[in-house]
Amino acid sequence: MEFSEHIKTANVEDVVLRRPFYQPTKGTLCVTGHHLIFSNRGGDSARPFLLLLRNIDAIEKSVENLPSVSSGTITLKCKDLCVLQLDIPGMEECLNIASSIESLSSLETVSEMYPFFYRPPFLSLQDQWGLSSTEQHYAQMKEIHDGWRVSQVNRDYSVSPSYPPAVIVPHSIDDETLVKAARFRQGGRFPVLCYYHRETGTVIMRSSQPLSGANRKRCREDELLLQAVIDGSELGYIIDTRSSQQAQQARMTGGGFESKSCYRGWKRLHRQLEKGKVLQESLIKLVEACGDQSHSVDRWLSKLENSKWLSHVQTALSTAGLVAECVERDGHSVLVHGSEGTDTSLLVSSLAQLILDPDSRTLAGFLGLLEREWVQAGHPFQQRCAHSAYSHVRLRHEAPVFVLLLDCVWQLARQFPLAMGFSEPLLLRLAKEVYASDYGTFLCNSDQERCVTGVKERTHCLFQSLLRANERQHYSNPLYERTELAIWPSIQPPSLQWTCAFSPIQWPFDMC
Amino acid sequence: TENCKLYSRLLILYPGYGVVENVRLIDRTVSRKATVGTLYLSATHTIFVENNPETRKETWVLHSLVASVERPPTTPSGSHLVIRTKNFQVLELLVPQERDATDIHASLARLSRPEKYSELYCLSINPTANKEEREESWSFLDLQADYRRMGVPNNLWVGTPANSEYRVCDTYPSELFVPKSATPPVIVGSSKFRSRGRFPVLTYFHQDTLASICRCSQPLSGFSARSQEDEQMMQAIMKANPGSEYIYVVDTRPKLNAMANRAAGKGYENEDHYTNIKLQFIGIENIHVMRNSQQKIIDIKTPSMGDFLWGLESSGWLKHIKAVLDAGVFIAKAVAEEGVSVVVHCSDGWDRTAQACSLASVLLDPYYRTMKGLMLLIERDWVSFGHKFSHRYNHLDGDPKEVSPVIDQFVECVWQLSEQFPCAFEFNERFLIQLRRHVYSCQYGNFLGNSQKERRDMRLRERTYSLWPQLWKDRAQYVNPLYRADHTQTQGMLRPNTTPYCFKMWKGMYNRLEKSAPPRHSPADLLTAVREETQQLEQELTNHQEVAPRGTAHSGTKQERPGRPAPSTGDGSVDSPPHDYRSTQRGPPDPAMTLPLGPPKGSDPDDLSSACSDIESGVIDLSSRSSSGGDDCKDPESDEAIYCPAWSGTRGPDTGRLPC
Q1: What is the CATH number of the domain that holds A79?
Q2: Measured between CA atoms, how close is B86 to chain A, in angstroms?
Q3: Torsion angle, alpha carbons of A279, A281, A286, A288, to 10
Q4: Could you give the ipTM of this predicted complex?
Q5: How far is A453 from chain B (nearest CA, A)?
Q6: How many domains does chain A have?
Q7: Enclosing domain of residue A23
Q8: Which of A304, A328, A486 sits opposite B309 (nearest CB)?
Q9: Using the beta-carbon criterion (under 8 Å), do A489 and B309 form an inter-chain contact?
């Protein structure tokens, strides 16, 4: 299919572009397969304004068709929460442009997306895609080589379609056992290592829920696997990111939890983290609250409370704090899971690592963490970030779990302004890239999908690009002073701030 | 020991000095950990000295900063006393003998509610009789020089002798500026038509646009009264801005309140009588609403996010802060952007008017964003123009209905601005908190009384010291390292974003007591340290270059570099225990309102260091002696250490278990 089929009017002259913090400008609007391009030739800025069509979340149009005036206005509400307005002379042109934007911005075929066409001069497709592999990560952690090994059991993605080909597991557990344990976990996501804490020699693992079901099925291999994790030591903690009631209910649909009698030495704690639709609606309400025009503080605070967003931030940080506390203070290993193990589990495990691990708080370390715990670990980015807060489309799998992570990291960075090697602009940049990007990093839902569609061969990697010298400088925290200590966030409500990053008129960061 | 000697000496100095032993200071933040020590009640402070010979930490609370002392029912272990201070700190004591507790309670109740000015700190402690130094302290700021800085007097505005000896208005300063065309009869006539005689006078003159900000009280217009002189006065103000065709009259009250005042023969300007005025209501609530609102924000219990946000909303505090800032923004825009003069009033013209005028000045003039500028501004718009400090901040035991956090709101607005414009202010948050503290504490004579006349009658300049040179002397700790005089933010008018989400709760002010609030990393402290280090290095470099030709080593001249805050101290937070992540949000209420009496680490100096700054003879001894006694009380961190004890070790006592 050719993009040109969707483009009825490619160029319109004398269009007025209105966007926050800029004077309205008149220029030429051009629709291409992936972009809206706006240039004002006579204007002061030589660079045209470029908007990825994929970034457009909702489009509103209004036309006026009188004998004297025929014109239209298109309001573009973007996934990065910017709101732009285009005043277009000519009703027909306006409608054509609007329909082109509508169809082009909702194309779903991954291999037609812009990252497959983006070829900047400063990057080469021959460069390594991604920062590190499981094997490389393992190789760097010499201290775990005795107890842990890299397993290639998922090399063809047959054991778990959403896991990467290689994972780190206890040395004593062979691949055969893993295969069996995987059958007992939703989506085959058996417990794997995500963090080793040197000081106490304990680990953070993550997985999906066990499929014990209504009949309280057991799986010897799964029990063995967990037994091997706490090998000898008396205790481990399972942090279930669902309420105990939810976990009980999950049994009715084939899911479940680790019962005390079957997993000796493991204690289960429930902390309910919201996800899915609840989280998406929370974001929608938050953005709506930020855009409220009434200028009333009461209304703002009431809407902010009603959105529950900050409560989600608080719960996420508090659960991550609990995990970190188990590992650092109590010296016990932790397994984190919810149901699928692709959302809240990742949120909690990555936040816990930021609290504990100074290496994950550097710029490169943080991006590495995101790559391991989100991209490789199979967070379904494409499903979760299909739409943002403005879309009128009926929601399916959307959920701003990653955005919630970014907000939690922002809170950490606010409370510990010296401890993070990266700065707020990086978080804002990531929040934008996750919805619409020139890079392939956040495409697809799993490593397997990325291999099938050739993402790694035919797109560029965002993380690699962010680590180039000039970008690195832009996203580094000038106040950074590495601390080896854990950074325990305060979860008291006054310590958690709202950020204006969710406002439609946030400060513009590099639009092009 | 040294300290005992010191206190016995004090006992001699101040008869009636109370000493109670085996008192427990309960720190609710660390599992109700208590420290045993001795409580001393001096004429000016409550002092708790820890028994532990290793530390002997001291906690000082100034009597004039005590807001309330509560006595919960006696328990078998003794009697509790809960002291709440005006800067939102809480001290909980357990006294073994009930009789002692009753005595302390009664003494504190009396000491914290002085009935006469002479009982206040700045008057009760006789300063060292250094007349010269004292006089010098009062001449540190020169209001007239600041008027000259704005170009006043000039051919539009002139000084008037009308109020010399406070003849026309006893709550105004004696030196006032009015439009050149305002004749004495106009001034007197206008003052007769204004509440408490507070006729329109100049407070700020904007040289670029020639527009001005004037202030006054409400007109005595009732439903129909008018005054030719008052109308002429307004006309004169407009004429003093050449080329302008109208003036704004900003009534900072809600319109309903203004209308209600008409029934009492007061009210607002009738636009039919005054030619060329545009009346604008802003809607800042009255002092009673503000008092209740602040109480609510102090009382917010913060277990869950929902409750916190609900509490914040229902307190209305941020809404009021926004209203005050909106008033300032309106005036500043009128003056700078439209070039139109503004006359500001509320009811009496000494609360909301002071807030609005001074904020407008901060927004308009970069000078008021410097330390000295802000001092001058407070001296002008608040002190000289008769803001009723003693009534509003309860200096003497008086009518509780007169008390209201009016200047708190101004200070907080400046803080909100500094959050939006981090490079625009020369001072930091600490400066603002310290300023506010002194307004309440009366350690200096600046804020005593309710008007310039009262202060003159009390001869405060002869009997007390001025705060300003002291703050200036300590300016190193109040500097905002991000301040850049040449930054675009710093120049010209500030145009803040006043969207509701831009207003934040001032944690540094209201939540200094947050449960186990670890002193967070402070970028400001780091930057200050880095800057000092850089200067030091540059100094060394210069030294080296000077000596280099001779090629001699000069380890001798090498100075100790001020180190950056080491992670273990400067970043004490990272060492602190995890928060209580185990309890669910709805768990038992956190004793959130108990933390250090002393200020957070590295923040404003504790009571002692400022109390004993250096002027009061008795206290000088105290400070120096206790320092020599091995207790570096002036170390702002020492106080803190009481509250962050054992957890620097590996595990707290209760970390072995996890609830299942």
Answers
A1: 2.30.29.30
A2: 20
A3: 160
A4: 0.88
A5: 42
A6: 2
A7: 4-106
A8: A304
A9: no
